[in-house]
Amino acid sequence: MFGGPPESPPAPGPAPGQRRRTLSELLAGRVKKQKYKPERKQRLQEAALHLLKCHQNLNDLFLEVDGIQYKKTSCFSNLIDHESPGVLGAAYSKSFLVSALQEKASKLGIPVGILAAQTAASSLEQLCQVSEGSKQATLLNLEQKKKLSSLLDIAQDLLERSLFCRVSFCQEIWKVQNSLVLEAVWQLHSKSIIDLEELIKSHSDSQTVVDWLYDNLCLVCEQMENSIQEVEVAEHILSDFMRIFVVRGFQKIPDLRRNVELEKVPQICVAVLQKILTYILGAFATEIQEESSTFKTVKCWLNMFKCSIYSSMVSPDSLQRFFSYTLTQILIYNPVLKACDAVQKQKDWSFARTCPLLTALYRRLFVIFNPKDLIGHLQEVLETHEVNWWLVLSCVSTLVVCLADAQQLIKDLLAHLMIKAFESYDLESMITAFLIARQAALEGPSVFIPYAEWFKVSFGNVSGYHGCSKKALVFLFKFLSDLVPFEAPQYMKVHILYPPLVPIKYRSLLMEYITLAKTRMADLKVAIEDMGLYEDLSSTKEIIEPHCQAQQDVEKAIQVFEQTGKIPVTVMEASIFRKPYYMSRFLPALLIPRVLPESPDSRMVFIDSLRRANKLPQNLYSNYLQACSAAEERQLEERILKMDPGNAEEPLEQLKGALEELRTLIIDPTNYEALSAQVAVISGKLKVILGDSDDSRIETSRIHLNFNSLKLGQREQKITDLLLTSFCQNLMASSKFNPPDRQGSWPSLFVKMICGQRHFFPALFARFCQLIYHQGEFLTDIHILGLAALAVHLNESKSFVPELILGTSAHAKTHSVMSFWENLLTCKTPKSFYLCMRFCVAAISYTLCKFSSHSHDVLCNYLPAGLIKKMQFVVLRMYLEARGTTCQEDIVNLPWRNLSSPLIDWKKATLCLWTQRKFQELLKERQFQLTYRDWLLFEMEVKPGNDTLSDVERQYFHQWALYQQYLPESSVAGGCDGDLEKACVILVETMVDFCLRSSGSHLENSELPLCGIIVNRDVLSRLQEMVLELELERWRTPRIGPSNDGGHFMFRIFQKRLHAMGKGSAVGERLLRQQELFVYKSILVGLPPSVLISTPGSGWQRSMHCEDFFHFVNNELKNISPRECALAHDITIHFFRGLLSACLSCKDPSKEVNLILTACQSHCPIILSSAVLWWPRLEPVLQCQWKRHFKTALPQDLAQIATCQQFARTLLSPSAVLSSNPCIPWISAASLHFVVLQQADQEIIRKALKKLGCEGEELLISLFFFSLMGLLSSYLAPNDGVNSLKSLDVCAEVLGCLEKRKISWLALFQLTKKENASNGRYRILQHLASDQYIRLLPFAFYSLIAYFDEDIFNREQSFLYVAVDMYLKLVQLFVAGETSVISGKAHLSQEHDQQVDPLGLITKARQFLLHSIPQCPKGSFSCVMELLATCEEFDPEVKAALLSNQESLEDADLYSEPVLF
């Protein structure tokens, strides 16, 4: 640090053999020789200071003085103060430095501040210098950072003393700018030594400043190393500089303050940002590689466009101006591409094909804008600048993909551009709109409408932008014609197939364009006639061959048909508007001859639907059937030919010999290298035998298997058995010498060889089904081990195995080979349990051993989850030792070692595998967990009568599984989180799913389908136990008032599932809903009645509530009733038994029962009508139950049902005298209706109706309603023994009685109208009938057309309205297919010849209306006008008749003579 005078001679070195002594040793020696005197201390310090001042180097001094660390690094502290601490020493050193500066400044005659600035700048230059040959750095190393810290500390101290000139320092820095490191400048700014803005202002040449900042910032990005510390420093430098640039470059400066000096800094900041952006966009244009330094730099710069970097340090307005400026500069960067170039290249600018860094930049810029402002900015740029189409269109793609609201905003932008284009015939707006529409459509229909749809909406109707004026049409077609040489064929297809709407007189303009487009497409070798039905016109993929497109169309059409059950609209349209393609391409691809399956598959059903819709010519269909028959005969001939020993025995023997030679190679470890060659030989032999069919790729895209109908030719079975036997024998032979992991790759090669014969797959899997599903109990251990290992390697080669369709229905699901095995293995009988356990243990043990060196993920990939779950189920069920056992340390090959012995102990092998740590680790994977739901599904498949467990063992196992395994387990592990209600919910949902999956077709004919028929009765018992326990808990924790927790959880389950299912209008959807409701009803019948009736409260304060059950009955359960206006017997008696049971906990049981039955009258009347129907069977049960607890008679409202029954019998008795009716009229009507249907004839009914007095009006109305429901029931359920003719006679008699008494009955056919729904009487009647019966009331109305009074139009002015309304609804029912329910069941009735034909009934109703309308009085037409719109849609002739007669009546009134007196 200090240098002596130049003329001083060099100090003499130490004598040989002597060591040079340090300064401390010299001083220490001097201290010993001289006595210390206090007065000498001051003189010594003054002498030392004088010596330093004479020989000081200020630059080094600036870099050395280092605050607290100074005394550790410099001997100078010892000379100043031997005893002072570090902080005090730093203060002395700074004071010394100030003194030195002042003294030198006085000698030089310059201010101290300028000298300090010059010295600091010189020191900074010295600090940043790098050795020769080294490249320029932008980050400091550790030593440089220490020195810089010292420099900054001194500069800060000088600033505080006002001894440092910032302006001079900035000027000095620019003098040494080429040597500066950017981090040093950043530190000067961050430590507030100088401000960056001040530094920028101090240079006279702005461009030099811009270049220096840009170059150094780019160096920071390029030299950013992987160490975390350097990356953090670099990010801080970049973010700080970017914040300064944004704040100063985009601040809003009032015009009054504008001057050159103030604008200098913002201009420099913007120029640096512009240069950075230009670098980024230039890099994008060159398609940078990820490994390049440019990619690294660009990625670094893109991080500077995150809003989080600026946060609160930059105002939102400044940041938005910066992002807006950046987006504009991107869009107008280097606008060299023409519009025609964009038309040709835009398919390569989609979101997926655009550089991810560019899309990332767009997304970061989009964040600060709302979507509307963003589109507005894009529109402004497009209208005011020349743009780079590549960047604009890639921006549009990013917009529609990343912004949810972009689709509508882009549509609005397109509309604006199109309106502007046609208003001023602006070609630029036109081409811009087309480019944007096509670009947005490239991203798919999920984010923007297809181009074809946009073109149709824009020009395909009268309201199109072209307005059908000649000038606009010329402009449009001139534009489209100019596009032809540049655009892709798919766009010309759109223009031809969906042409603009053109008036006839300008048709020549359209034809000229079509001719030009077709000529261009012909040059491109693309035919418009070959365009597929489902071809994506916005796709950028290469055009495929027409026959391949037709095959894709067929597959897609069949897929849509499977989902909807209807012929796709696209196919129907093609059969009319694209007949050449439909006839020459689509139908031939659909009608490829094949061997037809025994049960119709989706393709067969689809073909039949086309035939019935007259969309398939009969001759084509006949030829197709003949060709299929020929294919079947040809296949049979080939099988017979293959079975001929003279033709086939030799190839089979050769294959057998090749397989035996393979076994020899496998046994001899030295011949492993020849295995691959021998497998190739076997493959060749197999091809010779099976043949190499060219159609195999099509035929085996999916394999159809029906477990219950497997046909395998003798020849195919022989080949299959030969291969399977060879594999099993090879496995056993090789296992004698080596475990599977050391047997080499022969099993994989063998299986891949089989996979190469794709047309062999159906026979292979059919044989698997025969052996395992049907003959599994007869398989030996060797067979099980071999088949299990083969299954493992088929899983390994799953990518080569086609999908399997298990079943023959059109809706059968597809399965992968991984899920195939679990469907083969059932657990219903002891033998099937044992087979399942053996197969699962063998497959899992083989996998763990064979792939022991592979990763955990590979094991998970090769093991089917279904096998793991089935093994857990079987092991836990069969072996008590497995419950709660812990895993043990793995022993290599131990599981397989237990299986490779001659006599296998399967229990030992199973438990050994079970306790393996690796296996237990697999069970922790979510996909392999046997969840509570999985366990229930497996358990429900078990037939109690054929179970391996006794009844006691099974009950113990169930209780262990429920209460020890799954109830306390967390839901993450497949349990119930300790929640008993949750356990019940899962059980019920699983039970419903199982019932629908297993025996849905038998539900309607079974009273208790859950009890042993569909589901395991023991599982149902467990549900009953858990529900009863929950009910007891609810009873012990009383609540005041009805439950407000959303109702009983059972009804919550039902409502949740039904809501998810939706109320579909299609017949199939309604049938599925009914099927599910039958299961719900059966579950309710099997549970305690307290589920239906809650008793909140405590002690004698309890009351009964049934709101949940009432709601379920009114909305769902009544819709599956077997009889009109009544529930099934089982649910009815279950409710009343529960009612009498629940009332026991109340203070006044009779009163509570009466209250519930009173509530039934208004809220759920179908319960009372059900009791009326089933009373003969219901009364003895209720009497017995009531008398067990009370000696009194049944509660009054319950006994009243018996009274109503007696009233009905009395009314129908010829000799009995009728007294006054003490019952509620509609209940009496229900009793009378059900008794009439059972025993009375027409004459008795007529006499009974005469007995009713004047007070019987309400009873007659209700009886007519029940009769109508009975008539509909006789149509809907003719096989229930209900005579439809008798039902019609009863309706006619009641109607005649109403007509004689002048009682209006029309309101019964308008129950859904508001004025009737609010009426208590009609609301009760509406609740009594199912939704289907209410919908079918028009059918009943016009069934009585012959019995209507001739004068009814004059007597009832509303009759015309009701008649027209019923007719329109009847037509709507026919169109919707609901009347087919009646016509479809007509043949089941004994008098089906007299059944009403729906179409015939509509015809009669129409004739009745057209005949009656002219006879109606004027008042009848007042309300009919609101039905005219519906008439227009379904029958315009009826509408015309209504309007014509109304006008004629008005004209008659106009010319009639006025009555004056």
Structure description:
With about 1450 residues, the chain is mainly α. It is built from 72 helices and three strands. A three-stranded mixed beta sheet has the order 1-2-3. Strand 2 (about 805) and strand 3 form a beta hairpin. Helix 54 (about 1130-1140) runs parallel beside helix 57. It is globular. The termini are far apart.
Short account of what is shown:
By secondary structure, the protein is mostly helical.
Q: Could you name the key traits of this structure?
A:
1% strand, mainly alpha, three-stranded mixed beta sheet, disordered N terminus
In helices, the fraction of residues equals: 55-70%
In which order are the strands of the major sheet placed?
1-2-3
Strand elements, count: 3
Number of helices: 72
Stretches where pLDDT is under 50 for at least 5 consecutive residues are 1-17, 65-89, 643-648, 693-700, 1000-1013, 1040-1044, 1386-1394, 1451-1461
User: What is the global morphology?
Assistant: globular
Biggest β-sheet, characterized? 3 strands, mixed
Let me know the average pLDDT. 79
